[in-house]
Amino acid sequence: MEDRSTKVSIVFVNMRSTVLLLVLATTCYGQKNNNFVPGRNSIVQMFEWSWDDIANECETFLGPKGFAGVQISPPSENIVVGNRPWWERYQPLSYDLTTRSGDEGALKSMISRCNKAGIRIYADLVVNHMAASSGTGTAGHGCDAGSRSYPEVPYGGGDFHKSCPINNYNDPAEVRNCELVGLPDLDQGKQYVRDKIVEYMNHLVDIGIAGFRVDAAKHIWPADLEAMYGSVKNLNTEFFPENSRPFYYQEVIDFGGDAVKREEYLGFGNVLEFRHGCELSKAFQGQNQLKNLANWGTAWGLMQPHDSVVFVENHDTQRSGSGGVEILTYKKAREYKMAVAFMLAHPHGETTKIFSGYAYDDNDQGPPGSGWVYEHRWSQISNMVGFRNVVEGNRFTFA
What we know:
Elements: H1 4-30, E1 42-46, H2 51-65, E2 69-72, H3 104-116, E3 120-125, E4 135-136, E5 142-143, H4 172-177, H5 191-206, E6 211-214, H6 222-231, E7 247-250, E8 270-273, H7 274-284, E9 308-311, H8 317-320, H9 333-345, E10 352-356, H10 379-391
Parallel strand pairs: 1-2, 1-10, 2-3, 3-6, 6-7, 7-8, 8-9, 9-10
Antiparallel strand pairs: 4-5
Helix pairs in contact: 2-3, 5-6, 7-9, 9-10
């Protein structure tokens, strides 16, 4: 006699599996959607700007000029270092939303004002590690890095990988389980650690964040990142359509010589395209003929446009270079403007990112009271943002 119940069970299981696969596919695709207001394209990284100043810029310049978003400096409490270098922002002490950019109230107000101006906000997310030194943070909380005690989270010694340096970038376990430049390395394989990180991310989603630039993603196991991303809430429906997912763009530096590959991170988010800035910097500094850019795109080893976020420089590369290349910055203004204009004119890259920071002589120098460069306001750049919005989707010809 035919066992019809078995057939029904198999069909039911297959249906559930299909539904689950569809849900997962929809979620992963959603996490690669940049959540821009239609007709806008470019994010500007407003490095070390205050929340109040970003809010004003959204309303008076970025919105009217057609920008799409702002990447803000890490919003979580960081250790206070004596001479206040920029990199203290990348040494979190807790997930309290108080930094030298402003407190939680100012952050929430800025996000709301920018969203209403058509500008999405993307937080620089630092969750690979915690602060390397003991002391007091920007919200007044303390930590003892030596014992791995961060009571405001709280994290303790059992929440970290064992202490070890990264010496061999051909060993993916060492890259992901040891300490990047001596920073205590969180163990995201532990459910408790993932839960605390997701709690922090959900807090930012609740106040209107559109997505995250994920710092040092290369140093976190892909499966752990995917698990955390999938646990984060949908975006706030006050500002976004129902069921919208956060956009993730991840820092995975890969020039082809390391064991950790950018492709490992593409299934659940986008990856920052470091090769883009390197090759354009070489071309516009005369190290490659401009005519060779005729086939600019994947032929140059760049990721597919829908998988990447393209840029010329960021806060790290403008100070230290990238891939052994001197990266163009405001200090070579003419060549820099040409490289950024080329990026904005070329269709490769569904999401472009511009940098706006401050003048410096010392690579460690923190933000000034004055001396801001305002690269995003330079007419050769801001006008090209508008140009890109107008021509997006049209056929491109290299003449």
